[in-house]
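Q&A log
Question type: sequence-to-structure
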Amino acid sequence: MTGLYSQHLKNPKLRYLRNGIMGVVLFFFAVVVLFPLVYMLAWSFGPAREMAASSFSIFPKTWSLDSYRYFFNFSPYSVRWLWNSFVVAAATVLGNVVFASMAGYAFAKIRFKGRSFLFFLILMAMMIPYQVTQVPLYILFVNKFKMTDTYAALILPGFCTAYNIFLSKQFFSGIPTSLIENAKVEGAGQLRIFGSIILPLSKTVLAVMAINTFMGSWNTFFWPFLVTSDRAMYTIQVGLKTFKFANGTMLSPMMAGAVISALPMFVLFFSLQKYFLEGVTIGAVKG
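Response status: OK
Response body:
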């Protein structure tokens, strides 16, 4: 069967037919994936005050920059929404890079009582759906601690995630223990070992953690929507919903805001895309 298949591939006509079919299939999936982005970008240049209706064209009839001006003039907090998203995302990245990496190092290289059980709890936490945790978090932050409309409520739930602890632990497990033992012989403590030896060797995993955490924090909608009622504390994703009214939606200004909010993601991806690929394989192979 394998020999017959190889003979068919040597036939130029069959090879061209196979390549043509693969090209058509890949083109179809590319169109499906890129269509929402093209639609968003096209309508961001549409009429600023045109409401979304049940029937509308794929591309606007007139093109202008009015929607971008309307987005920034629609609310006095439009720029504040972008700033809030940046502050929350940056603080979340900082917390995960520092504390999740320290926890991962402890689980990987420090022997202490209950280590296996605690790591098992970390793995269990990763299996719990994100939506399930929102109810107890809401009761804790809003009803008990009265932290509505604060940066703390937006940042703390994602300040150190189970996934990043697991990711860093898997990476640190591949670092030779002999390096740590030699440093201990020289009189170095755990903090100095972590800061002077482990971190310089962990730029890849730290970059992956920072990228994934920033993207997740920047794009999240549900939790900021729950804990903010003051428009001044909205993130950009929550602020976009203010363009939807009971009788319609300001389509083009909303799309303009979506394009602006997506720009950091595009810049992040195209400038650091090699780390996205490395992030898929971290922890899969040791050594």
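Response note: The chain has a mean pLDDT of 85.
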